[in-house]
Amino acid sequence: MASLVVTTPRRMILEKALAKTLEEIPDVEKAAFTQASMTIDETRLLSSVQDYDAKHKNQSAFRPHAERLSKFLNLLNRFMGGVAIGIQASPEISALVVGSVRIVIDLALQYTTFFSKLTDMICTFENYLGPLAEYAKATDIEVIEISVIQAYACVLKFGWKARRVFIDAKGNQLKWKSLRAFMHQQWEPFEIEFATIEEDLKHQFDMLLHATQALHFDHTRKADEARRREEESMTICSNILWSRFIDTYLGKERSAFLAWVSSIDFEQTHVTTFAKKHGNTCDWLIREPKYQQWLSGSTSALLWCSGKRM
């Protein structure tokens, strides 16, 4: 039974983003990378690097390479499997990316003069892939996916350009008359191209840093706003509850005080007395000029009435 490959939206985005790079790489390189992913065994490759280290360890400028390359290949495999980022590349793309690195390491072992320099170049990608993995653990945002896709593209470009330093377009090893001629015609232009690739990766990484900082700032701002709204809501609820408590408490206090002073309902007594008065009682008072002047006055004043009305 044929296996069913599910094409997820993320995988489609990944392959679409890589389409331009894949179109630029000649078919001969693609075939070589795919073949290398199947025929160049990673364990055997690292064993050969260990043998190289052992052979050159007594040289004054020697630096061990096996551990560095092993660490990078493990990191690259983790990325291609999508463990850290949730974007899993298709088997075809995974074979191209992983194969491109393996074939460069294998070529470097054949051209030992450039082995250390090529190892340094390969391990440069670790400076970006490592932090990307850490960022991806904390959040899943589009800019991280774009940065990882760009990392895939840069690795592929590096493998393509590095292979062309030693292998021609037909797959044959290049031959040169002298090391000086090779350096001038092949290696120096490649170093310039690698600088461009690294600059592109650095640009993507800087964008990732800025985007992550902006995301963190926005998250902090929203968290502060939510906390402020919650505090305001709690304050309003507290004020309402306190107001209700005071109203209830003062109402009970007032009733208790009035009951202590007298059992007479003064408000009801006033209403009853007012209802028994004769009509027009004391109307003369409000018709008095002094009262009218006091009532319509623009300043605050005390009206003092003395004497009696016959």
Summary keywords:
310 residues, rod-shaped, disordered N terminus
What's the arrangement of secondary structure elements?
Elements: H1 9-24, H2 27-39, H3 42-56, H4 66-80, H5 91-110, H6 115-124, H7 126-138, H8 142-166, H9 179-261, H10 266-276, H11 283-287, H12 289-295
Helix pairs in contact: 1-8, 2-5, 3-4, 3-5, 4-5, 4-7, 5-6, 5-8, 7-8, 8-9
**How far from one another are the termini?**
124 Å
Main sheet, how many strands, which sense, barrel? none
Number of H/I helices: 12
Mean pLDDT, rounded to whole units? 79
Rg value? 44 Å
Low-confidence spans: 1-7, 83-87
Shape descriptor reads: rod-shaped
- Please report the total strand number as a whole number: 0
Number of structural units classed as domains: 1
3D architecture notes:
The protein has 310 residues and is mainly α. The chain has one domain (9-225). It has helices spanning 9-24, 27-39, 42-56, 66-80, 91-110, 115-124, 126-138, 142-166, 179-261, 266-276, 283-287, 289-295. α1 runs parallel beside α8. The radius of gyration is 44 Å and the shape is rod-shaped. The chain starts with 8 loop residues before the first helix and ends in a 15-residue tail after the last helix.
